[in-house]
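User: Can you model how flavin-adenine dinucleotide sits in this protein?
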Amino acid sequence: MSDRLPPAASTVIVGGGITGTAAAFFLADRGERDVVLLEQGALGSGTTKGGMGGIRHQFTDELDVRLSLMATEFWREFPSFTGSGHEFHERGYLFIAETAEGLAQLKGPLPLYERLGVPVEMLDRQDIEDLVPGIRTDDLAGGRFCGRDGYGDPLVALAGFAAAAVLEGVRVFEGTAVSGLVREGDRVTGVRTAGGDISAERVLLASGVWTAPVAATAGVGVPIWPYRRSIMESGPVPGLAAIPMTIEWESGFHFRPRDGRQRFAMPNLTSDGRAEKGPGAAPDSFDALAYPPLEVPASLEPWVKARAAWRHSALRELDIASRWSCYYEMTPDDHPIVGRVPGVDGLYIAAGFSGHGFMHTPATAQLVVEEMLDGKATTLDISDLSLERFRTGRRPFTATVL
Ligand SMILES: Cc1cc2nc3c(=O)[nH]c(=O)nc-3n(C[C@H](O)[C@H](O)[C@H](O)COP(=O)(O)OP(=O)(O)OC[C@H]3O[C@@H](n4cnc5c(N)ncnc54)[C@H](O)[C@@H]3O)c2cc1C
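Assistant: Here's the modeled complex, given as structure tokens:
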């Protein structure tokens, strides 16, 4: 990594998570020179290090599905684009529903998938057992499956993007926090750091859950806030090494293999023990956000063990080997903010992915680079993801936060 900050750059990227490193890669790939990436900690040390690594097409909003289609094409060819491996396992996402109501919700978007050419099928109990041998199905009404979904390793992918970007001349500075943006009239002209200012034609905020305070220094309000979620990983579990990502639709509990172990994601629990599948309402103000401590609540492990034991006999004697929490980077409509900031030339945002940013990265990073270099994203129309929508009231999105 580089050691002396340059006084000027063509583009400064703030944040070295999967989004920032992928944007660096796409800028370099387009031949952009003098690109600088600033990361306050170590690359990947934000939300990216904590993710489940899931990659799915099974959304309910057309734009999400289109982003997935674009991204998955890239994930499949990741080694040829970046020169690095990425561990994309196309083993599918299996949603299972316990209730007739849940099953009806799973069936709802089938016409959308059919129209967009995404192969999704409804499953009966036997189909589910064929995909996940030994799974309990006597309490299930059915399931939904897409074999083109799967999972990867966010940090391995990040390393691939970063290495390719650095080889193409991008300069990366870890341990370098941006303390503020430099704004002159209607334009952002650079960033402030403890090591000096860097002037830039363009600044991209890929700063995840920390974006609101940075943007505020240029007078730009960004509604992204932190919502803590946790992951647990078991010791080795024989026999389940190649199953799909398996998701209980009603509870939100899900699991998938990783190197012979099982990785579990779960809802948060309220103080009275209820499962909170997704975050509630956005905070009233984004001026002084509270970042909840990242320790894993003690109540979660017994809940996970009970849920896992109920769902699969091989998970009955579960040994939880590691556990961690990270922040979902939530917006009020559970969708990211991607693109130029209207009314402030030179400033761009790609942040607020609301718990599904890893899977869409190859699409969102390429599209924000198109906004930066071409004035507008053209591969896909992403005007609905503009920051502007919170002011003008664009169409509401429908989201499924897992
Ligand atoms: C428990 C959990 C499970 C998840 N599961 C999935 C999943 O299955 N599939 C999926 O697609 N997504 C999942 N996600 C979401 C996904 O991990 C995130 O959407 C994605 O990693 C966001 O990446 P990012 O680069 O935008 O943000 P981050 O990884 O947070 O990167 C932002 C970076 O900016 C840096 N930064 C911030 N402010 C500054 C500053 N002022 N100066 C310099 N640097 C700064 C931070 O240090 C950080 O490294 C999950 C998230 C969690 C928490």
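A couple of observations from the model: The chain has a mean pLDDT of 95. The longest strand covers residues 225-236.
User: Helpful, thanks.
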